[in-house]
Design a protein that fits this description.
Layout lengths: L1 H30 L8 E5 L8 E3 L3 E5 L4 E5 L10 E3 L4 E3 L6 E2 L5 E3 L8 E6 L7 E5 L2
Antiparallel strand pairs: 1-10, 2-3, 3-4, 4-9, 5-6, 6-7, 7-8, 9-10
Length: about 140
Amino acid sequence: MKERRSFLENSWFWVKLSATAALCYPLFRFLHYRVPKKPRLVRVNQQLLEGEVYLAPDFALFQGATHAWAVSRTCTHLGCRLNYNEEENLLICPCHKSKFTTEGKMVAGPAVKDLPGFKAEKMTGDGKGYVVTLFG
């Protein structure tokens, strides 16, 4: 009889522990939930010719032969704003001299990551300008 009682007591303990874990699981999932940031649409009301560059505070917009693209102007090393060098056709960090191609690939410097790219589309309708989608 004593064995049966201890078995039932131990079983009741595990049932209570399982029920508590099942009730707390959604709470713990909620604590770590992060709402994703909504993309920000930026209008560039300027028509670029092939090879031209538009520099905005957050991104650099480039026009190629077939399409336009945008990359971040924030250095992946320490977050300095990148400058565009026309002679070298590179984005260069004024703080620590990291260098990136116009496609955002890291060429030199203390930075180890490439620049994030952004979606750039020509505006519909009049077609005079672009819409750049920024994330984050």
